[in-house]
Records
---
Amino acid sequence: MLNIAVCIKAVPDEECYNIIKFDPVMKTLIREGISMVINPSDLHALELALCLKEKLGGEITLISMGPMTVTTQLRECLSYGADEAYLMSDCIFGGSDTLATSYVLSKGLRHIGNFDLVLAGNESADGATSHVPSQLGEWLGYPHVMEVCALNIVDEKIAAVRKKADNYFVDYTVKLPAVFAVSRGMNKVRYPSIRGILSSKGKEIKVLTAESIPDLDISMIGLQGSPTKTGQLITSSFHRDCMLLDGSNEEIASAILGMIRPVIDD
Amino acid sequence: MEKPDLDKIIVYAEHKKGHLDPSCAELVGKAKELSVKYDDNVVIGAVVLGYEISEVVKDLSQTGVDYIWYTDHPKLTRYNSEYYALALEEAVRFIAPELILIAATSQGSELAPTVGARLKTGVAAHCVDIVADDNGQIVNIVPALGGKFLTEIKIPDVRPMISTVKPSVFVKKDVPANSNVQTVRIESKALDSYESRIWFVAESVKEENEKPIEEANVILCAGMGIVDEENWRKLNELAARLKCAVGYTRPVIDLGVVNNDHNMIGTSGKTIRPQLYVGFGVSGASHHICGMKDSQIILCINSDENADIFRLSDYKVIADCGAILDAMLELTGGLNG
Ligand SMILES: Cc1cc2nc3c(=O)[nH]c(=O)nc-3n(C[C@H](O)[C@H](O)[C@H](O)COP(=O)(O)OP(=O)(O)OC[C@H]3O[C@@H](n4cnc5c(N)ncnc54)[C@H](O)[C@@H]3O)c2cc1C
């Protein structure tokens, strides 16, 4: 029986990235019409949890920090087959950077129970710092491994993992409990079953506020607990004057080859 | 307003099999550039960890750094995130720098947030630039929302500040070696007594003859517009004939035509700046653009005349990229060569 926690983040839908507009006066994002989705990498972490549960038995607990709207994404995750979901939501969590976020999540996890495995997606689609898994491991005092692309439970105390490291792979055994950041390549994400969808509707999503956690150090959270201060958004204006290459396919091919040949490596 | 102190910048010097990672020179170059803004009164140091690393330390002394701090310990024989984080944390506490630059390699991407958490300080991830503003504050420019926007990150109140930079994002500069480099060995007490909970088992051998895509002059990049395996094969045949490299966008990996993602270009892959980038059916998503926007010449083939990638291209071809591939193969030895 494994106790598995999966960290979930709601992010703006990738499909909307190219329509996200930026208010040049307010220097903020115009979020209207931008739908939120489950961070794609997190689904791979959830998929791993589901596979492990099927094989070895156990319980899957979801945890997310974010506004109350994230109940939508958590409910969706429940429909895949997770057992429980916690949303850490409080306005004083707002403005947390990765250090503060991982602190809040670690406190939440400690409060909820004891886990053998804490899984997260390797990166979020929006911030994409890939900091939270390692930092969560540090706050929890657990070993942590990024970019895990294969994982097996050896026995109750040990996991065998394969980590993608630049251009090669490294295999490790890791003492549990531990935090693993799951990379997209690990698995194919299933579709939720009708039964899963129906049963998720009735499940309660438990909300944890700052007050729910007695030993939460307020100075470590939100804006004041975040060493990094994010400034204004700058539109990255990549633009080049573009010339059309026209003609028959042969003419075009020959023009392209004419550009390639002088600069190819010797 | 008085300038905030910036006395020491250190670069985490990664190395493998006795060779310094090229990122090291890129980061030292940036540290030098920053030090000019502080009237050159900045010590630029490097921290290097490993076992029996005297050769690496020697190579490091040629990179233009003023100081080298190193920890030489059997537990550092190969990278282990726990031992390395412990040694790096120990070194940083000893050196007390204001700024730490770490390459966002696989290793650096683990170490930076880990050490950041231990020191309870901030980490700016994947900086595309690091500058000093008029007040002498370090400003990190980082991609936001998959590179669609950029944003500034400052770490005003906590030291050290940590910045990570993806390999090849900064261009290597020729920094003259300091003839008077100070080398300091750090004796690690913490390592002696710590036993890691992560054990190395095995490592896959890297394909040695694979030339890094970052070094290629011409890159043919496959996007989803190549549609199928047949065109992928053609693109590779063409690249082999012309001796250029092949890169790809992320969804191409899901086509199942490549068995690794070494040459994926973009925020989660490689940053390239070849002399010529030729895109075959690439749409121009921000995640991809981030990794190729600094190519000298960008030429793209796309059947959609409104494709975003054309806004960033020097030359556009509005056509089916399979047909252009065929025509290029014809002109380079025939379709079946
Ligand atoms: C967290 C995160 C990280 C990511 N990191 C990366 C990354 O590092 N690198 C990366 O590349 N992507 C990355 N992505 C994915 C990225 O968002 C885009 O989905 C991807 O770059 C699009 O690839 P594409 O241009 O090949 O495909 P598409 O967007 O599907 O575009 C295909 C293009 O081909 C054209 N086309 C179709 N048929 C033809 C034809 N016959 N002839 C010519 N043209 C044709 C179409 O008009 C279209 O413009 C990431 C996504 C996320 C969420």
---
Amino acid sequence: MLEVQQDTIETTYREAIRMAIREAMQNDERVFLMGEDVGNYGGCFAVSMGLLEEFGPERIRDTPLSESAFVGIGIGAALAGMKPIVEVMTVNFSLLALDQIMNNAATLLHMSGGLFNVPVVIRMATGGGKQLAAQHSHSLEGWYAHIPGLKVLTPATLEDARWMLAAALEDPDPVLIFENSTLYNKKGSISTEVNKVNIDKASVVRNGKDLSIITYGIGLSKSLEAAEILKNEGIDVEVIDLRILRPLDTETIIQSVKKTHRVLIVDEGWRSGGISAEISARINENAFYDLDTPVSRLCGEEVPMPYAKHLEHASVPQIETIVKQCKNILQHERV
Amino acid sequence: MDTTSKDLKIQLPEKEKALDLLYQMILIRRFEERSAALYTEQKIRGFLHLYIGEEAVAVGVMDALSKDDAVLATYREHGHALARGMSAESIMAEMYGKVEGCSRGRGGSMHLFDKALKFYGGNAIVGGHLPLAVGMALANKMQGKNHIAVCFFGEGAVAEGEFHESMNLAALWQLPVLFVCENNLYAMGTALEISESEMDIYKKAASYKVASSPVDGMDVLAVQKAAKAAVDYIKSGKGPYLLEAKTYRFKAHSMFDAQLYRQKSEVEEWKEKGPIVTFTERLKAAQLLDDDTLSNIETRVRKEIEHAVQFAEDGNLEPLEDLKKFVYST
Ligand SMILES: Cc1ncc(C[n+]2csc(CCOP(=O)(O)OP(=O)(O)O)c2C)c(N)n1
């Protein structure tokens, strides 16, 4: 009796990213990691813990608090033949480097008539949920998805945490990776087999027929839990993990809409002008006549994130609110 | 000139003043020790950055200010808030996330504010408040007011563009602003020597034509004297001033920090130079302080903190319907 068992390992989201960085550094001399506290401190979310000892300070490069400069330096190094992974502690601080990301990384290829591409990877934590208040808790990845020239990845699963980085480093253009900070401790098992994941397709994580939840990042686990609760009430929900906010995989979204005819978009980012608005517009443009109910959205409340726990909790979509909204959508139709 | 009260024999102030400075430092110390315990009990959440070891800087500088001067600080600002005169209750209630807190529970530990005391936060983007201080100084100048704006920040902020842009504009426009750099040698886990090509922060000021000096930030009298001189300089219309207080943070950066970036022995050495122990010794030697007086101060502080904790425990939560309040003024 022969049983073929695929090898798997128990890991966390944090360790999966660390494995990806380590592997990239081992495979390619041009890869280096740069950012605040990535070395001696081990990374503000402990992602790079131990890498300084392994690769030394040339390649695990601590920077001063100079977001605009070190992101720009990453872009410059990429132009000159290196493959930098720049870590910005959180998306809130990336605003100090927004000029470099937008006016240099995203534009150089086009502005130079195709002469100069920028193969830089910029990683940063995003999201709330830790009572860090209004300067440390927002989900601004949707903003970055507004910018042509960038690719915006939002790994929500351990597989993507483990394998998206390699794909990002292979890409000739600037790639931003947003790691939701509440996911770092997420545990699970992943295959040890090399998994060449794509960075242009959304994934249908759960099949269902009654309604499609379209989400990404931290919204994925909340939506999956909501789907489980709804299943017990006879509601069969499909859940789509966008994985990539730019380029947005319209095709997978539309296919799902054509199947379920009802949509809920779940996004921690603010509603007005956010990525949820873009998704909704694309559904209206491409599948309006397939809809049984209007596209529905659950987004972050339009308020700078408050510190108090109950207020913060009420500021972003939660499992309870997702469940309720799904029921409303189905109810709406019966009325 | 590195002003250290021991070296330069800075005269002790009169007894009442000296004891008040000591009381303030002890209040900050005990308040934060209690806050750390409450954090472990999960009464306080989010980030909690302790100022323990650096108390002399806030206490010394605040003493040199008038009530009309504006104060801006970082996320490590419990000490500044207390030294400016904010009540322990309003800060504790804030960290409990209660409506009775100084920022109605919206801000937490990193975002303490007080309008009456002209305390403008509590800013958690490193370097983000330096331009604000310059702007407040500009407004004071344009309105013909002889008030200054005082901005506290760590040496980590000096690497940000905002530091350099602010210094230049403050000097160019001759604005009444006091920059107080609290150089505690580490920005999270990044040591000064791996972040600055010029490690004497005060020397950077020269290239902007900003007057500056270093001061022993572990010595409350030295800080007070240096701050007084800087404030007088600014108020006499000579433009901005940068004071570099050499100090040290005894605790972790925030509550979670394995402190792999520094030696335990280094921390211990600095603790011996601690602002409270050294000042206590000095006062005792000068017979301005005896054990009874010290224990009276400790008792008074303990009661104040007990009261603050009770106040926070008894406080109320903002109703959920008010979530979107204060996004706009009307
Ligand atoms: C622009 C920005 N980048 C990064 C951070 C994360 N961060 C918070 S405090 C800190 C270290 C700051 O050190 P320093 O300015 O010396 O002040 P200290 O904490 O030592 O008082 C860092 C990196 C931040 N809050 N803002």
---
Amino acid sequence: MGALLKVELTRLRWRRAVVLLLAAAVLVPAVVVGATAWGTRPLSEADLASAESDFGGRFLRQEVRSCGRTPEFYGLEDVAAAELPEACRLAVVSSYAGRSPLDLSDSLESGAMLVVAAVLVLLLVLLGTTFVGHDWNTGSMSNQLLFEARRGRVWAAKALAVGAVGLLVALLVSLACWLALLAIASSRDLSAADGMLLDGVEQCLRTGLVAAGAAFGGYALTMLLRSTVATLGVVFALTVLGGTLIGVLGGQETQRWQPQLNVMAAVTNEVTYYDDSGLEPACLTGMARPRLDCDATQRIGAVQGGSYVGVVLLALGAVSVVSFRRRDVP
Amino acid sequence: MSALVIETSGLRKEYTSRRGGRRVAVQGLDLAVPAGGVHGFLGPNGSGKTTTIRMLLGLSRATAGSMRLFGEEVPQRLPSVIGRVGAVVESPKFSPHLTGRQNLLLLARSISAPDARVDAAVETVGLTGRDADRYRSYSLGMKQRLAIAATLLKDPDLLILDEPTNGLDPAGIREVRDTVRDLGAAGVTVLLSSHILAEVQQVCTSATIIGNGRLLASGTVDDLLAGAAAHRVVTPDPVLAARVLRAAGLAVTGPAEDPGDHPGDHRAGHPADHPGSEPDHALTVETDDPARVTRVLAEAGVWLSELTPVRQDLESYFLALTADDTLGGR
Ligand SMILES: Nc1ncnc2c1ncn2[C@@H]1O[C@H](COP(=O)(O)OP(=O)(O)OP(=O)(O)O)[C@@H](O)[C@H]1O
Ligand SMILES: [Mg+2]
């Protein structure tokens, strides 16, 4: 098994498509972090002045005053009274200028780190697929089986190689991105909330696991369908049409089974979404009685998201290995 | 342990088409290949040779019947014997973007063979100097050579070659023939499937001929040809001679046949004596006893002007045997 695993790692290394995908898995996240850094760069005096002149003085000054009265609406409740006028001016003008400072918590839940996770998942599905799709397309799978006839082992060695590379790459890339964001924040004297560093590291771990799962899923599905094109078609259909189908079928609380939401929950620890299908009809007619619970916000936690992803991958893996062991190999 | 290296009994393979139809590729095949020597495995296109070989190697599943390699039940015990079997199945199948050498390295390492064996194999098949080129830049003959090199990585006791000379130039064909003959002489059992029967006759000690997935004949090449011995008879009155010989229970073919007596009726008839291929007055009598021909004809007062043994070759024997089994004849 050790020899087989080494062979599969070498095969991965020698596949040009795999190398290109790995390069993309480093470069695209780097661009995402770079773009975030640029998009949240602090406003200079010149920026402030030009924004103020662009948006007209009176209206702006009015809002700065209202910020001084109710700083909590602007997220400035902790700012000392002496610094409030300047802080308010900054907050109001930058919101007019469409540029707010780097928010680490946001970038974990919905910003850069979530985009990085999505990019990694996508690229690693492609990696798992193209790695073994090539063996099927060229027919070299049968040649490999003439040297190791235990198909279960061949399947497992390839799965392990793809999963391990996926985990390593996703973990390292997302950690690097997170550390870069932290460094940017500290270079701009933005204070990070307590435990933020650890939250981020935990999210990187979850990203690594989910992305490794994605690589494995792409691999297992391709071993089942024996074609890169067919696999990509199915993945596309599942993510796009599957979500639509769930939406169209309606029924109560079906949103809960959307694959994207669950994957997101597994990465970010919690996802909230809006689903009013489970509410009392009275809520929707606007004639709600006082104590009726009309909150349509639902949440999916990391445990549900993780279990969802895990069960899907386990089932897929089982079907894939059984099919590979039984079916004729061309 | 049986002395047979390959043994099948009642081997059957059915393919089901998408439309639900069934095609029987191999039906009740009993194959017995003794240890040592080169064994020809012959049959027209689509007769089931490749299918049989693929079942023996565990690439495809038998519908019924049993198989043994080195006395071990396959596919159940295949992993324990596959290390002793080198095989080329149909066209060579390697990764096109890897070099010939890289392709061999991956296979060698998967069985923990030293890299040095790759160099030796490359040298043996005459690919030295081209092994660092990408496989997709190889000519057909070079691909075949690489496939043969791959079989040598294992130092096999049994070599299964499915049309190994396909695409080779005359020098390459001779090299493969010499390699096969040398291996056979060195104690390696070779199962050689080929359509070039002159080649097969030169290197094979024994042969099996199948048609339509069924066994047609099997044995040493000498025995196969002896059973089909014939004599060419020239007399002044071929019509009378044919009648006399048939009355004596001998199978006769020739130009003066009675209506309704056409070559297809004689499964072991000789294509060499198809009408038109001989002078008008010549007959062919299927017997290895010329004295009997002389006596029968003399007793009837027919005098021989010529009696010569017909030199039978494997090709004519094969063509006669499989006359009904060609693809068009279904
Ligand atoms: N994967 C498959 N699906 C359906 N039918 C198949 C498949 N593979 C082979 N067959 C059929 O099985 C029969 C035997 O084919 P096989 O390839 O074993 O012949 P062969 O003796 O190797 O012929 P050739 O000399 O042309 O190589 C043919 O009728 C073929 O059409
Ligand atoms: Mg064939």
